Amino acid sequence: MAFTRRQFLCRSFGAFGAAALAFERFGLFNALAQSAGDYKALVCIFLFGGNDAGNMVIPYTDYATYSAARQAAQLAIPQTSLLQISPPSIAGSVFGLHPSLTGLHELWGMGKLGVVCNVGPLVEPTNRTSYRNGTVRVPLNLFSHSDQQNQWQTSVSNGSSSAGWGGRIADNT
Q1: Apex 71 CA angle, 54 and 128, nearest 5
Q2: Whole-angstrom Cα distance, residue 72 to residue 70?
Q3: Fewest CB within 10 angstroms: 77, 95, 143, 158, which?
């Protein structure tokens, strides 16, 4: 269906008006007008299992172990294409970011990015032996993907909560 110039202009201005109302409704004009100053943000992205973290932050100094685990399925990223980072908290260790993460690599270089790896919603420190012996408390429904996701979103691993951790922070701010 072909649009006339008049229809195009009417719809364009209608869309512009709707966008302006949305910006005003949600206070975005005020947010855009603020100066940055020393503003810092915590950005959390929850991918519902849609991220292969093992191919996002890759052990560079122990690349052979990573490669052996991923080579059969042809998932290993070539070591030469990794974007190297050296965490100050792990002296002598080098990791590599996936080559598509150039923006994150730049933020790392500016000291504006941190990586938190190998975390989970445990109730207390746990190892395989204490788990198998039943001598340690573990989250409810451990190994249930949906329950673990709920625990991540609420930050409650030994019960249930209808409010997420971000909402609780906002309520107390």
Answers
A1: 50
A2: 6
A3: 143
